[in-house]
């Protein structure tokens, strides 16, 4: 299956990347064609539940596929696994009406979603400051008002999961909830697109007293941080798998260039400084992969994976940035030009160090957790020795 997905991405998705990146009707047609083909070939929605129309792979089995699928940003959408996070969240925390209305169309690729937590005027690293509010409406519904930004894919989305305050005031640890908002609702507006290092796909959105049915609140009022925590652990690990696939792609391009580009001193591959780029990139890839799969195994087993996800996220983001940068260096000017995917891979690697929580956030929380095992309370605790390992 991994080989078949790899072949599909390399032979069908990657050649269409320029059209897919361009957006508009041509991109929609290309994506629809790829999805039909993925369904015909039995590759559709592999990590999603069989009863909803997916392939039913558990996360650990799917992880090997996610790497090769993620080698292109368009792989998950073309192969139907893009809704994994939303389907998992709605299946666990959506009420009956939400599950019945949305799960099957999501898996079939008929509905698109996005996730809106970060706000322009509040640090994204501090969700307690969330200013978006959901007030109870007259008929039990919620009226949501606020502004979010860097909401990936908001322009084409049918549903947006919004983090909003349903109780308490800014700074309180309690009172945050997640609401599933249909984007066709009156009062929902795309304010502007926010290009990231020149690439589109991120949006600022506004909600002005958007009415959300009572049963579109996920879990119970006040559950946002628990649900978001689950979603982020799975989401960060998924991204790491995809970044491994993208870094492998940059590594392949770098090595192919090194052996084929020759000057009067012979092929680049014979230069020791080029070999050093190859060694460092391979080392980064090989040392990051087991960290990511360690996080996958813990999440799959339903165990606490906070340390492992933090380590994997920082390592994978740095690794993608480093490998893409080395591949560009070995290509010379061609690496910065329009004929290779390297500029896009470098951009993804750079953004990776900020999105889903910046490096610093993960570094401090992993380090604090590690240090706790050496603190005074841990010393009295015989389990402390185990935690230290
Ligand atoms: C390409 C892209 C896509 C994104 N997609 C989405 C999306 O779909 N939905 C969504 O809700 N958000 C999305 N985001 C937003 C992203 O999750 C936030 O940018 C991120 O969580 C950081 O929040 P912030 O930008 O408000 O930075 P801030 O919280 O203002 O932090 C700024 C900087 O302060 C430093 N810092 C912060 N905390 C600490 C700390 N504890 N210790 C030391 N230094 C610290 C770091 O250097 C950090 O980069 C996306 C961002 C990008 C770039």
UniProtKB/TrEMBL annotation:
Transmembrane segments: none
Domain Acyl-CoA dehydrogenase/oxidase C-terminal: 226-370
Residue ranges of domain Acyl-CoA oxidase/dehydrogenase middle in the record: 114-210
Cofactor(s) required for function per UniProt: FAD
SUPFAM superfamilies in UniProt: Acyl-CoA dehydrogenase C-terminal domain-like (SSF47203), Acyl-CoA dehydrogenase NM domain-like (SSF56645)
Organism, as annotated: Streptomyces avidinii
Protein name, per record: Alkylation response protein AidB-like acyl-CoA dehydrogenase
Quaternary structure and interacting proteins, as annotated: Homodimer.
Tagged with keyword Flavoprotein: yes
InterPro entries: Acyl-CoA_dehydrogenase, Acyl-CoA_Oxase/DH_mid-dom, Acyl-CoA_Oxase/DH_mid-dom_sf, AcylCo_DH-like_C, AcylCo_DH/oxidase_C, AcylCoA_DH/ox_N, AcylCoA_DH/ox_N_sf, AcylCoA_DH/oxidase_NM_dom_sf
Pfam family, one: Acyl-CoA_dh_M
UniProt keyword terms in alphabetical order: FAD, Flavoprotein, Oxidoreductase
Family the entry assigns: Belongs to the acyl-CoA dehydrogenase family.
Every Acyl-CoA dehydrogenase/oxidase N-terminal domain range: 1-110
